[in-house]
Specification:
Transmembrane segments: 23-48, 60-85, 97-121, 133-152
Oligomer: single chain
Domain G-protein coupled receptors family 1 profile: 1-149
Shape: globular
Subcellular location: Membrane
Distance between the termini: 24 Å
Structural class: mainly alpha
Membrane topology: Multi-pass membrane protein
GO molecular function, one term: G protein-coupled receptor activity
Length: 175
């Protein structure tokens, strides 16, 4: 989902609304979801059938998909988005939604990707970091988004403490 959102926001900034096909978002999301569902279905069926060797190959494929498709797509699209909005655009500074998406992707890469890397390396017998560390990072990732929304939504001209509802409204509304 983060990959689809990152790519969509990047494409919407890079391409004018006239030159971008309206169906592009739906196709990108459908392809990413189909790829994810196919890989997860293969992993689930092979691992539940106790096909040990095939299960390991499917798991390695799933983690490789994270590293080589999803994570790089998020990073590249966010770097392009920042470059376009901050360096090229003469208009107003980036909107809060861009900041939220970028922070969400950054924290995903810092806190959730280590679990995938750990799982990937574990398939080859490498145990570099204790299990508790990677699971703690994954737990932080799964609970950090509301804080990002609140902090970005509560900082307008000056940072102030506002209600959670007002902060969420500010994040997701267009200026």
């Amino acid at each position: 989902l983060l990959t689809a959102i990152s790519i969509e926001r990047c494409v919407s900034v890079l391409c004018s609304s006239n030159s971008r096909p309206q169906w592009l978002s739906a196709v990108v999301c459908a392809l990413l979801w189909a790829l994810s569902i196919a890989v997860i279905a293969a992993v689930s069926s092979l691992c539940l059938a106790h096909e040990q060797e095939s299960c390991q190959v499917a798991l390695i494929s799933m983690y490789a998909l994270d590293f080589f498709i999803f994570a790089p797509s998020m990073v590249v699209s966010n770097v392009l988005l920042f470059f376009k909005v901050l360096c090229v655009s003469q208009g107003p500074q980036p909107k809060r939604l861009y900041i939220v998406i970028s922070l969400t992707v950054l924290f995903f890469l810092l806190f959730a990707l280590p679990l995938s890397i750990w799982n990937f390396l574990q398939q080859f017998g490498y145990f570099l970091v204790p299990t508790q560390v990677v699971f703690l990072l994954a737990c932080i990732n799964s609970s950090i988004n509301p804080f990002i929304y609140f902090l970005v939504g509560s900082c307008q001209k000056r940072c102030s403490l506002v209600s959670l509802q007002v902060a969420f409204q500010r994040v997701f509304e267009e200026e």
